[in-house]
Design goal:
By secondary structure, the protein is α+β, with helices and mostly antiparallel strands. Helices cover 24% and strands 24% of the residues. It is globular and about 85 Å long.
């Protein structure tokens, strides 16, 4: 186990080994100069009583009505269109607008509004060829919608989960077959890397994007290379050297830390007191049987506690309009063994929704800077932040608000102590993504004996997880800023999901190799774990602190949320002034202690 005396020695960041891995990305292309038009569409149905036309809000119902007007992916002959199940209709041709279509039974209609927006596939091709720096997010969003709609006859997509509609039964030989729902399990089956690899390849075959019958893909000239997954280069970072004592080094193997020290302990075995549940049930049964001699008509059993509110209240859509807890953990030493946490309770005003913005960022940073100054006698000169829980669309919000809030805290504390504000490097960590990496055992491994024969450690055709310390920073990353995939932990089951790190600010001036090595080493700093973690340990402590805060400070008013799906327009885009926050405090003996689950 790594303890508070563990120290980390520097290693040359250039001493890396190289490898190659396969990723579930496939090379694809679009035709040039294909114009993509976007139209606003309104779907209405006739009210059964009043006879008035009422706009349909339900996405499944909107999709069902729209499909009744689109035949063969065409609104009119040679006018290919696809719908996003919301308010937008896309096409590769100019539609005659305004357009009004009424169903044959006169129960539903669609209205296509004028003034279309338009983009081109050239925006994507020029970005891929690095002729443009701006990411074409609008054109990519339109084509992502096209790919989903092009396979709607074979796959049903519900909340980013795909369900295959056409699936052949599995042949069990000797005349037996197994269909999809013949076998069920209480627990979700965890696929091996080989099974996940095969499932991805099979799913691509089922989608059949290159088929001539896929009219939408042919309309934009979409083509995908289905022969093999994309192969990318991966660097294997060196393992850190960990001191578990003044002169004793710990051994690291496959992500596990072994202190290799002698343990002088005495284990006393005591038999536990037996108090099985059967004895209690037997006593209750004997008590009621003893009352039969009295010939009671009935017995009244009074419970000592009752709380029906927890059973009847529905915690509905808490994320949209309820209380959100944010936690920040700071380390007072370079080894990240002395840490303190601050928690912010953030809630919107009535009628507003929560957004992914830490309003109390400045105050939390000021408190943690004060903690650092108490422990070390001075303020830090360099700081590294790891931010969790934001996606790519929120990077601009983080840069404009949260990073500026941190700078305000730095300036406030530096003016008090008459020092220069520290330099900052800011990471965003993404754990929930769909990118996977696989290794393929190609070369045989020599056996331990001296025979001339070679015995493979695993079957030659087996697909495995990427090794610990593997970094991918080419081909499948965003070229607009420094970002990389890092696998820092060992997956005991299933397929590893490496974290995706984005560097939004690098005032300190770290090189890319130093950023990767620093992040990798911070995954070994958890004092309660003998193995490396999937994310830096201080970030894991922040997750635990936020989770504990919900249990410690949450009450009835925090968990109550609106049950109305139709939120007002003002609640969809609240400002910082419409969010209230409160810095939560615990007992002073726990305020500056590490957070362990």
């Amino acid at each position: 186990m790594a303890n508070n005396s563990t120290q980390y020695r520097g290693i040359n960041p250039n001493s890396n080994s190289n490898s190659s891995v396969f990723t579930n990305h496939f090379t694809c292309s679009f035709a040039d100069k294909i114009t993509l038009y976007q139209y606003d569409v309104v779907i209405e149905e006739k009210h059964s009583k009043s006879g008035d036309w009422v706009e349909v809000k339900s996405r499944p119902k909107c999709s069902l009505i729209m499909q009744s007007f689109i035949h063969g992916d065409q609104l009119n002959p040679q006018q290919f269109v696809w719908y996003d199940e919301k308010k937008c209709l896309y096409s590769t041709t100019v539609l005659s607008i305004p357009l009004l279509r009424v169903s044959e039974d006169n129960h539903s209609r669609i209205q296509i509004k004028p003034l279309p927006n338009q983009w081109s596939t050239n925006d994507i091709n020029e970005y891929v060829k690095k002729k443009k720096n701006a990411y074409p997010k609008d054109a990519m969003r339109i084509l992502e919608t096209l790919l989903k709609r092009s396979v709607q006859d074979r796959i049903r997509i519900h909340h980013n989960t795909c369900y295959f509609l056409v699936r052949e039964p599995e042949d069990l030989h000797n005349g037996f077959e197994r269909r999809m729902t013949d076998q069920q399990s209480d627990n979700e089956q965890i696929p091996t890397p080989q099974q996940r690899y095969d499932a991805i390849r099979n799913a691509l075959d089922v989608c059949d994007y290159n088929s001539n019958s896929n009219l939408l893909c042919r309309a934009v000239g979409f083509d995908i290379d289905c022969n093999e997954m994309l192969e990318v280069d991966a660097k294997i970072l060196p393992q850190p050297k960990i001191l578990s004592g003044p002169s004793q080094s710990a051994r690291i193997h496959n992500g596990h830390i072994y202190t290799m020290g002698e343990l002088n302990i005495v284990v006393n075995h005591y038999e536990c007191k037996r108090n099985p549940v059967e004895n209690t049930m037997q006593k209750i049964d004997e008590y009621f049987h003893s009352k039969q001699a009295h010939n009671y008509d009935f017995l009244v059993c009074i419970m000592n506690d009752r709380n029906s509110n927890d059973l009847t209240q529905l915690k509905h859509r808490i994320k949209l309009s309820g209380t959100v807890y944010y936690a920040m953990v700071a380390a007072a030493d370079s080894c990240c063994t002395k840490t303190a946490a601050r928690v912010c309770k953030q809630y919107p005003k009535e009628g507003k929704c929560s957004i992914e913005k830490i309003v109390g960022m400045t105050e939390m940073v000021e408190q943690l800077l004060h903690y650092y100054q108490q422990e070390n006698g001075l303020l830090p000169t360099k700081t590294v932040f790891y931010r969790d829980g934001v996606d790519n669309a929120q990077f601009a919000l983080v840069r404009e608000y949260e990073i500026e809030a941190i700078r305000q805290a730095f300036a406030s504390k530096s003016s008090i102590f008459d020092t220069t504000p520290p330099d900052m490097t800011f990471f965003v960590v993404q754990k929930r993504h769909h990118t996977r990496f696989f290794t393929y055992n190609e070369n045989p491994i020599p056996s331990n004996n001296n025979r001339s024969s070679y015995k493979p450690k695993k079957p030659l055709d087996e697909t495995g997880n990427m090794p610990i310390g593997a970094v991918v920073d080419t081909k499948v990353i965003d070229d607009g800023h420094i970002n990389f995939y890092l696998n820092s932990h060992n997956a005991f089951q299933g397929v590893n999901r490496p974290s995706h790190y984005h560097v939004l600010l690098n005032q300190i001036g770290f090189t890319v190799s130093e950023l990767q090595l620093l992040t990798f080493y911070l995954c070994f700093t958890n004092g309660r774990s003998s193995a490396a973690e999937a994310i830096p340990s201080v970030l894991h402590q922040a997750d635990l602190a936020a989770l504990k805060a919900r249990y410690l400070f949450c009450d009835e008013t925090d968990s109550s949320a609106t049950t109305n799906d139709r939120r007002s327009a003002g609640s969809r885009d609240p400002s910082s002034h419409e969010l209230n926050y409160e810095i939560l405090s615990v007992h002073r003996n726990l305020a500056n202690r590490p957070v362990f689950g």
